[in-house]
Every structure is written in structure tokens, then in C-alpha cells.
Amino acid sequence: MASKITGTGVALVTPFDAKGRRVDYAALTKLVNFVADNGVNFLVALGTTAETPTLSTGEKKEVLSCIKSSNTKKLPIALGIGGNNTANVLERIQQTDFNGIDALLSVTPYYNKPSQQGLYEHFKAIAAASPVPLLLYNVPARTGVNLSAETTLRLAREVKNIMGIKEASGNLSQISHILRDKPEDFVALSGDDALTLPLMAVGAHGVISVAANAFPKQVVDMVKLAGAQKYSEAAKIHLAMTPLVDALFAEGNPVGVKAALSVQGIIGNVLRLPLVSATEGLVSSIAALIKQLDDLKNENLN
């Protein structure tokens, strides 16, 4: 099972109609087909990038159903279910249809800032309740709590049904400790587009990418090259993409990537409050950077 959730995964955005009142399921289908046709290895449904906190329970079910039905290439799917109330997370797991789901992605509890022992017990309970392998998700910049390398490794060694981690701490030393001491079959994925190549150079197994919504081929090609230890070739893509990746996160996520997808004509540039669409200046910058990337690609083809 763990081998299915490696390489390039894409944390799918949720497209909305022009007023943000309804999910645009036609655009979501278009997006799933776009990333699948460009070679991503797996899909991530209802993660942070999907603006999940603003979706109703019914919308979450419909979004997941749409992703499943649009997934004609039968790519593995990781489903996001997390929160800071362990009992509520367990209840939601029980109420979810896991048919067609290959992994559960669960974020560290936010706001109430549990201790490392609290984090251990939280994920131990989720792993026991989940009918599919659990992928830990550490993103302290959003949650206010860091899952330490020691706790990650303890969970990896002691708790059955934990398959790996999406690590988005941005702490290279912490991630290096995990990569050095983890069990052999424990999957470590980058949670930061900017750090995917450096982390793969020291043993990470791929990325759950935001950028791959809009630039799947570039991310897929870079990850494949890094996986083949062709780091100098992978670095060319990494460096070419660096200004775009910076722009995607300049006003928060998924603000930038929705702007990029809009420029490309894949979805509308609409978010739900409290998030707002990218400023005109950022949209212009992203459009110019996309053109530069396209021009560079055309030069390499000639």
C-alpha cells in the first residue's frame, strides 16, 4: 500500500462558481483530468489546499465523489480528514465511505497545541480507526504545533497502520533525522514545493504538491529525475520553477495556484472567505512567469 503514495501527488484545489456559492464540479473534473494526463502519481482530496474548512459536510462528500468518478486513470487517492477534536475525527472516519481511497491524510491538531504525548495518542487513535493506512501531516506554520522527529519515529515504529508522513515543517534538520532513522517502509513526502528536490536528494519519496495543480508536468518530470538520482537535470526544472513557486505562495495558499489555474483557463479565480482572490499585481506577475516558463520550454524544444 505504501508504494502507491509515492512520487508526485497533487493537493487538489476546489473550484467554485463565479460567486463562490457552489462548487464547480465541471471544473474539478477538468482539473483531475489535466493533472492525470500530465502524469501525477496520486491525488489528494480535501486537503488544506482544497479550502476544506469552508466546505459543508455535503459538499465534502460531493467533492470526493466527483474526484473518484473523474479519476478514470484509477490513480491512488489520499483523503484528508483531520482536526483538533480527536473524537470528532474518529466519528468522521466512521461516517466516510473509503471505497476507492488508498490512504488517510490527517493533519496535526491545530489551535489547542497538544504535547508530543498528546500528538502520539491522537494519531494512534486515528490509525486504529482508519480502514486504510494513515499518512501523518505536519505543517506547524498553519497549526501552531510541530510533530517532532522523535514523535514521528515513535509513531512509525510503534503504531500499526501508519504508512508515512507529509512533512511541511520546513526544518531540514528535523526531516533529515526522520529520513535517517525511519523504518525502511515508512514513506516520507515533502509538503513544500520549494524543498522537494533538496529533500529527495537526502531520501524523500516525493511530494504532495500545490504547484502540480497548475504545473503537473514540470513537477512530475523533476520528481522522476530526482528519483533516478539525476539531480543536475532535476535542478534545472527546480530553478526554472523557483520564481513561480514563490509567487504561488506570496499571498497564501491556494490563492496563488488558483490565480495560475485561472490564467491557464482551467478554473475560475474564486475563493471563499476568509480567503480572497489574488491581487491584480500578483495575477499579472504569475501570468508573466507562466509565459517565461512556456518560452523556456519552447526554446528547449527547438
Structure overview:
This protein is α/β, with parallel strands linked by helices and 302 residues long. The protein has a single domain (2-228), classed as Aldolase class I (TIM Barrel, Alpha-Beta Barrel). Helix content is 47%, strand content 12%. It contains twelve helices and eight strands. It has an eight-stranded parallel β-sheet with strand order 7-6-5-4-3-2-1-8. Strand 6, helix 7 (172-181) and strand 7 form a beta-alpha-beta unit. Helix 11 (255-263) packs across helix 12. It is globular and about 50 Å long. 45% of the residues are buried. The mean pLDDT is 96.
Low-pLDDT stretches: none
The number of helical elements comes to: 12
Helical/strand content category: alpha/beta
CATH architecture: Alpha-Beta Barrel
Order of strands in the sheet with most strands: 7-6-5-4-3-2-1-8
Order of helices and strands: EHEHEHEHEHHEHEHEHHHH
Average pLDDT across residues? Answer: 96
How much beta, percentage-wise?
5-15%
Corresponding CATH superfamily: Aldolase class I
Shape: globular
Q: Specify the biggest β-sheet.
A: 8 strands, parallel
Q: What oligomerization state is this entry in?
A: single chain
- What is the gyration radius calculated from CA atoms? 18 Å
CATH topology: TIM Barrel
Please identify the top-level CATH class. Alpha Beta
- Beginning-to-end CA distance, first to last residue: 41 Å
What's the number of domains?
1
Concise account of the structure shown:
With 302 residues, this protein is an alpha/beta fold. The protein has helices at 25-37, 57-70, 86-94, 116-129, 140-143, 149-158, 172-181, 196-201, 216-227, 231-248, 255-263, 280-301; strands spanning 7-11, 42-45, 77-80, 103-107, 134-138, 162-167, 187-190, 206-209.
